Amino acid sequence: EDQVTQSPEALRLQEGESSSLNCSYTVSGLRGLFWYRQDPGKGPEFLFTLYSAGEEKEKERLKATLTKKESFLHITAPKPEDSATYLCAVQAGSSASKIIFGSGTRLSIRP
Amino acid sequence: ETGVTQTPRHLVMGMTNKKSLKCEQHLGHNAMYWYKQSAKKPLELMFVYNFKEQTENNSVPSRFSPECPNSSHLFLHLHTLQPEDSALYLCASSQEGIGQAYEQYFGPGTRLTVT
Q1: Is the Cβ pair B108, A42 closer than 8 Å?
Q2: Are strands B110-114 and B53-57 parallel, antiparallel or unpaired?
Q3: Interface contact flag, A101 B31, Cβ < 8 Å
Q4: Residue-wise pLDDT tens digits, A5-36
Q5: Using CB atoms within 10 A as the burial measure, which of A65, A80, B5, B57 is most buried?
């Protein structure tokens, strides 16, 4: 069964304290893995797409990496404005219906 | 207007009411989606439209009825809902192509409360 699992469920960090969020997946025929950021009361905001193992992408303090079984979202020297829920999703096969989201990691950065 | 817009932002309805949610995308995409987001649960894909044709209906109850009159507009018609249908309903759009994964762009959502 296709599955996406994110950990931890919640993470509290001090400003400047780097860490990583994990997204483990089991799908057949991975087409792409997506990271989104969601602020309270808003829709998810697209961050990255990763297509194949070994691929990495960066944006400001965020860096996403991908292996054959999992993806990491590394946050370097986070600031309070990085506080949000980070969602991982995978698309398997060629159909848009095979998009599976994880439950998200709720990140809180203390000043 | 830019991106993906949704109206209304908040909706309270009784179980016997009929209401509609509206979504509009200004990104030139050809695929649109409805998602349900409940507390403590992952986003649930409800419907997919590709080039105005419904391609997927992920076992959604018939009290939810989608409509896609063109590639820029998407509606979700609601009738005789249950309290457990209370959730945030998100609309999204993307490019769509066989064999290629495209990121989705989401609207702000409609917070629905069924009383």
Answers
A1: yes
A2: unpaired
A3: no
A4: 999 999 999 999 999 999 999 988 888 999 99
A5: A65
